[in-house]
Amino acid sequence: MVSGSAPALVIGQVSHVRRAPRRHVLRHRVYQWLVDVDELPRLPRWLRPLASFRTRDHIGDPSSTIAANIRSLLAERGVDAEDDRILMLAAARSLGHVFNPLSVYWVIDRSSQTVRCIVAEVHNTYGERHAYVLFPDEKGRAEVEKDFYVSPFYDLEGRYDVRCRIGPTTVTTTITLHRDGEPPFSAGFHGSLRPYTPGELLRTALAYPLMTWRVSALIRVHGIMLWLKRLPIVPRPTRDHESHQEVVS
User: How far is CA 206 from CA 8, 54, 68, 154, 227, in A?
Assistant: First the structure.
């Protein structure tokens, strides 16, 4: 049963652990949002530069809405989510910029408050994005083949073990890559929910200045660090035309 409330700020830590071919660990404090895609928060005009949710920042038709695009994607997979609640964990556009390595959408049955499925939307730094539709077990765990190029240091081989849970006061997401029986890479986020108020957003934005810009910069900084560790570069494959993969214009 899903018990997290929205809209809320989710303040916590993101971590990446590479175990092979070279060990590399990063941990950074960040904040995200948990929102109902049908009831996106309406901020006072003076706060809007700090947080906005634009359709073009997410997968689907930029002239539609986030909610309609997710439901359309699910319909392609045979999931009728018209009557379901959909919660999104993602960073908002702030000070003119946003980059979400991972956005998670929980599709929740309104009567039972159970998760029917999850959409994991992955962005890479090449202006591409891809959506995985997952059907988790009662513990929030699902597996899926990797079929989207994210990092120049890994090819498309392997499977993801994905775990995404919303509790009364916390949100946790974990993705572990498995290859040849080993987990060479894992990424996770664990954060605490704070109900949105204008004051809470202002305090959080001041505590984590230029958050979205920092995320983009840190991805590139750590990429340079991995290159300096002499990790081999894997060329990006030619993009296919799979329906859940897009180039961001």
Answer: 17, 22, 33, 36, 33
